Amino acid sequence: MIRGPQYKIARRLGERIFPKTQTAKYAVRLAARAVPQRKKRGRGKTDYGAALTEKQKVRLTYGMGERQFRAEVKRAHASGGANAAALLFSRLETRADNILFRAGLAGTRAQARQMVSHGHTTVNGRKIRVPSHHLEAGDVLAVREASMKSTLFQNALERL
After folding, report:
1. Which class for 44: exposed (0-12), middle (13-18), buried (19 or more C-beta within 10 A)?
2. Where are the alpha helices (DSSP H) in 42-95?
3. How many CB atoms lie within 10 A of CB 109?
């Protein structure tokens, strides 16, 4: 997924959502760019604008495209009813790439996505190449034996 200029997107959204923007260097640059607060003119953000901003934050945090995110929202809304937001986040958290990231085997979600798409992982003994593969309770996500020898996973084991 092409994300574009990460610093610019992070400033627009007002959040440090990319790993690149979670460094001390970015914080220093942000403080240097800060201008004295002036009273804003015009109207504030509408409800639609605020909702759109929040949607973009979630979508970019999980590294998903618009079409893929919209499909996840539809699935959550169709099966969730009143609690669709909680169901959406549980679906996003059970993706294979996100679980690799949360487990600490990948430094970033983009790196986790690449690990899965390059075939380094297995679910219940079967190789998967789809980062959006949803795992259920009891599924075993593992790194392939052949991939354990690569420097990518050696560095991950040292970090853990």
Report:
1. exposed
2. 47-61, 66-80, 84-93
3. 21
9 in Cβ contact with 60 (< 8 Å): yes
For the entire predicted model, the pTM comes to 0.80
Look up residue 113 and give its two tokens.
Answer: 């996505």
- Give the C-alpha distances (Å, rounded to integers) separating 131 from 14, 23, 39, 109: 27, 26, 45, 10
The conformation of residue 119, written as its DSSP 8-state character, comes to T
For residue 115, the Cα-to-chain-centroid distance in whole angstroms is: 14
Q: What is the pLDDT of residues 116-126, one digit of tens each?
A: 999 999 999 99
DSSP letter, residue 95 = B
d(CA 64, CA 128): 18
